[in-house]
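Apologies for my clumsy wording, but are you able to produce some protein sequence, whichever is easiest, and the tokens describing how it folds?
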Amino acid sequence: MRNHLHEPALKAVVERYVTPGRRYLRLINTPFLSDPAARQWFGRALAEDSLHITDDELALLLSYEWRAQLTASWLVAFARREAHRERIGELLLANERVYAGRGFCFALARFGTEEDARLLADYLHAFLPRTDRGEQDSAMGALSYLDTRLGTEYSARFLGETGPWAHWLHARFPSDRADVPVSLDQSRDLIRTQCSYADHCMEALPPTH
């Protein structure tokens, strides 16, 4: 198992972008989105880092464990570093890291093209039948968000009362539960909020000369 403490280049990029302030923990459940005091400073730091980090450094983080991958995907998303689309799509479909998939879905939604919608649809086709682990709700929210923006219908194949999304919800959250903690509207709204937040943070940066 890799350990960044034993790889100088990886150690430097992890300590620069991932671990300060335990940034990766904030990116799991995004508490800063509902905290006015944190929204500005946290987003400013993400925006600046998304422009400062190199493609080689992003590739290093994406090759490592979930904390690094989650952080890298947010930095990729903020600055729309589309050179990493293919790698992010591969990692999402591999489904090897818990939590990192949330960032991958956000990045694809932020890129905002039909190619990204197809990558999300490929993931859902493979993983909606499974309930062991994955980020199906994030992917479904991102795909629905892209359909709304693009005027496409990639999510339609998964919807309906007897569709794969409904089966996944029923399997993941038994019908005797009074509270189902996820819905398509909630998942789509979270992705929309994240993308709007990224837009605002990037636009707020001072112009470069």
Residues 2 and 64 are 8 Å apart (CA to CA). The chain has a mean pLDDT of 92.
